[in-house]
Amino acid sequence: MCRSIKTLRPPFEEVVTEEDVHAAALQFVRKISGFRKPSKVNDLAFDNAVEQIAAVSRCLLDSLVVRQPLRDN
Question: Which residue, of 2, 9, 24, 41, has the fewest CB within 10 Å?
Fold first, then answer.
């Protein structure tokens, strides 16, 4: 798992912006593709993957049910 992707669900984050979701998707695609910036020939595939993962991630976050708040220990 890419360590720079942070948990976006409550109670870790109360407000999750589209920029947060996009940034996490971008980090994920960078990690699994091995490209920080793809070549021109791979730009479209890379960008499509980021957008698809961001959309699925937003769907997941919107459908999660969080029953208990995180406890402070």
Answer: 41
User: What distance lies between CA 33 and its chain's CA centroid?
Assistant: 15
Residue 52: name the closest of 37, 68, 32, 36 by CA: 32
For residues 18 and 38, the answer to whether their CB atoms sit within 8 Å is no
pLDDT for residue 49 is more than 80:
yes
- Half-sphere exposure at residue 29, Cβ-oriented, CA atoms within 13 angstroms: 23
Q: Residue 24 is which amino acid?
A: A
Please give the helix or strand (H or E) that residue 58 lies within, else none: helix 43-63
Between the CA of residue 43 and those of 8, 15, 34, 50, what are the distances in Å?
26, 30, 13, 11
